[in-house]
């Protein structure tokens, strides 16, 4: 019996709905390890309510108690957790945050996941998830296979000191990752968060240890695809300057990376591994795609060793990276070449 056959008896209004329920089951069983004794809270909004219903249907099939909460549209963009949501959080062990993505709501999202993690919950975080991702895209991947690939690559980073990242388009940056453990979202443990759809590994680089330039030619978190490349120069972990032919984009990114003192400090390095993830312009999916990597600035206290306490977190994606790892013993090894794992 395959992972999909187990819920083939769930009927929906049409084939599309059934496929979304299968995608939800894939995440709940294999990524969030939902059990009958668990209580699942699905936090959604009007635009994503069908996705929320798919998670509820799958959770009921798995025998878990489930409830949902719809974010109040009249209060959007939210900056704080709604008062009537707080009591529901304390009684749940597993969460799915499936609502629309808004750059101005990043502080709210960080507060939400920090609270969820603080009670030891397993959190599937999916701002901006789409029905197509659920039914046809990365949510339908074989996550058991991705788990093996993720652990294989994470093993290659053991005892790493630095990683030098280059692309043919112009990215050339070195990150200090000494003693910064990698994590993966394809197996979310208690007290941890991972994106849905899943399919990446990441770490929190040393906050003052990044040097070089990132040429962003993929999507930016909550912004989408860039019309013109964005160059970000980083010195001692902090954004020193930015350049782009798109003046509106440049103005927006400057605003978002200056929300507080730590918003312009490096916060994450991630690598995509999901073979079903496509390049759509939606970072939630694109950052999981094989052949991509991303660097984020801002909050990382929820990652091993992270000390960036910014109220925001912004991802910047680039394509076909080459990764050369320098180990503590001085040896060097290329583990990804032009986007392909070469181990």
* Number of E-type strands: 18
Question: Uncertain runs with pLDDT below 50, 5 residues or more?
Answer: 1-12
Shape: globular
Name the assembly state: single chain
Proportion of residues in extended strands:
25-35%
Radius of gyration: 19 Å
| Helix and strand sequence | HEHEHEHEHHEEEEEEEEHEHEEEEE
Question: Which structural class do you get from the secondary structure elements?
Answer: alpha+beta
Helix percent reads 10-25%
Q: What do the pLDDT scores average to? A: 93
Please give the domain count.
2
End-to-end CA span:
32 Å
* Biggest sheet details: 8 strands, antiparallel
Keywords, please?
343 residues, 2 domains, five-stranded parallel β-sheet, alpha+beta, Rossmann fold
Written description of the protein model:
By secondary structure, this protein is α+β, with helices and mostly antiparallel strands. The chain folds into two domains: 5-138, Rossmann fold; 141-341, no CATH class. 23% of the residues lie in helices and 28% in strands. The chain is built from eight helices and 18 strands. Strands 12-11-10-6-5-16-17-18 form an eight-stranded antiparallel sheet, covered by helices on one side. It has a five-stranded parallel sheet with strand order 2-1-3-4-8, sandwiched between helices. A five-stranded antiparallel sheet has the order 7-9-13-14-15. The radius of gyration is 19 Å and the shape is globular. It starts with 14 loop residues before the first helix and ends with a strand.
